[in-house]
């Protein structure tokens, strides 16, 4: 009976979306173009190098080398193997859904157990510094100093989520036979790296080709989700669903003494972060602190668009989605609380930080963040087309050989 209800519900929602697409073709097309442009100019060129590099490092055994050296840090803190440090670092550097992609690959390589992979996915999907500083702080709020506060709350909250999730699944791990602890050394790590590389029978050219193909395949899937959720959020606003549901969020915001006017942008941000953050920054009512508290929450929550991307990436494995979803709520709460705590020392007390002409984050002034985003928009389409053509050539050559 439950499955029949689920079938009726899913089919009904799909039919309703199709009806809305037919009724509002112009608005749907505009939203689709907006999502495609975001993927075309920013997402694809910014994530592709990280995806390809991660695949190559895993294929050549370098991640195994890193994992052994970082085992004494990752195991006590997050209760995951040392290879998790690679997923964590790459996830923070490049943004979501890189952490899920790498965690899935490590699970497929049997370097993680199911529970360890679920722990790792829960705290390795963070927003990139480029998005926090360049898009949100500079692009939306026109204040690069705000990036220090948002980034600190976001990444510290992310680490706290990892520490909390270390206790997840401990009961199930009691019956798992743990391997004997090896003495950590560079020599042992190098031997394990060499062993991992020798266990991969693929030649060098095939490893590189597979890295390019799998990375592009994942990014095409990511682009599809971005476009779909861009259209979906637009349709929900047109038919009046978003304004109606946002009234519920008004009461929730009022419980935390936050302006009710932020309810609609918050609801939008729960689906797509970029649109939500932009709408929050453009809200006239409400203090700056209230706005960035809500922005911090949606950054930690990731948005349903990114959550759908993560769900699709982990679907081929036995990694479950529910721990990741719980961690997203936890991350949003932690980031919001940390924003309140750090607001005065990291933002109001600016006298201790002379940002005028001084680089942010070791050499990146405010103008540089804008320059990076501008260059991505200019070169992004060229990079996207180039690598799509490369993937087409690789696939064509492999089909000819078969």
TrEMBL record:
Keyword match Acyltransferase: no
Residue ranges of the TM segments: 6-22, 42-66, 78-99, 120-142, 148-168, 207-229, 235-253, 286-304, 325-343, 379-396
Keyword set, alphabetical order: Membrane, Transmembrane, Transmembrane helix
Signal peptide: none
Claim: Transmembrane is one of the keywords in the record: yes
Pfam hit, one: Gate
Domain Nucleoside transporter/FeoB GTPase Gate: 43-139
Name listed for the protein in its UniProt record: Sporulation integral membrane protein YlbJ
């Amino acid at each position: 009976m439950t499955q029949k209800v689920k079938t009726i519900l899913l089919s009904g929602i799909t039919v309703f979306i199709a009806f809305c697409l037919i009724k509002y073709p112009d608005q749907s097309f505009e939203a689709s173009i907006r999502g495609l442009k975001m993927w075309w100019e920013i997402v694809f060129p910014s994530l592709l190098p990280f995806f390809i590099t991660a695949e190559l490092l895993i294929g050549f055994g370098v991640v195994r080398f890193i994992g052994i050296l970082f085992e004494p840090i990752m195991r006590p803190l997050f209760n995951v193997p040392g290879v998790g440090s690679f997923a964590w670092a790459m996830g923070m550097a490049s943004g979501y859904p890189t952490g899920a992609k790498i965690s899935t690959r490590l699970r497929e390589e049997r370097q993680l157990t199911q529970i360890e992979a679920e722990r790792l996915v829960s705290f390795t999907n963070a927003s990139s510094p480029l998005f926090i500083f360049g898009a949100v702080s500079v692009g939306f709020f026109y204040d690069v100093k705000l990036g220090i506060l948002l980034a600190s709350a976001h990444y510290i909250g992310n680490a706290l989520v990892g520490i909390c999730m270390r206790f997840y699944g401990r009961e199930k791990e009691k019956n798992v036979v743990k391997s004997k602890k090896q003495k950590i050394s560079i020599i042992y790590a190098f031997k394990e790296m060499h062993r991992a590389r020798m266990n991969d029978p693929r030649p060098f050219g095939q490893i590189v080709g597979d890295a390019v193909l799998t990375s592009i395949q994942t990014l095409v899937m990511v682009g599809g989700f971005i476009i779909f959720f861009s259209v979906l959020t637009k349709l929900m606003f047109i038919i009046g669903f978003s304004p109606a549901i946002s009234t519920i969020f008004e009461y929730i915001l009022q419980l935390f003494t936050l302006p009710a006017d932020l309810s609609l942008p918050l609801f939008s941000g729960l689906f797509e972060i970029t649109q939500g953050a932009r709408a929050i920054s453009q809200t006239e009512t409400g203090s700056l602190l209230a706005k960035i508290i809500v922005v911090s929450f949606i950054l930690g929550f990731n948005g349903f668009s990114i959550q759908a991307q993560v769900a699709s990436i982990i679907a081929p494995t036995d990694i479950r989605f529910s721990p990741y979803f719980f961690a997203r709520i936890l991350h949003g709460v932690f980031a919001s609380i940390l924003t309140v705590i750090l607001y005065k020392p990291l933002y109001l007390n600016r006298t201790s930080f002379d940002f005028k002409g001084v680089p942010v984050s070791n050499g990146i002034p405010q103008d540089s963040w804008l320059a990076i985003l501008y260059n991505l928009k200019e070169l992004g389409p060229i990079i996207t087309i180039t690598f799509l053509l490369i993937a087409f050539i690789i696939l064509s050559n492999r089909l000819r050989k078969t």
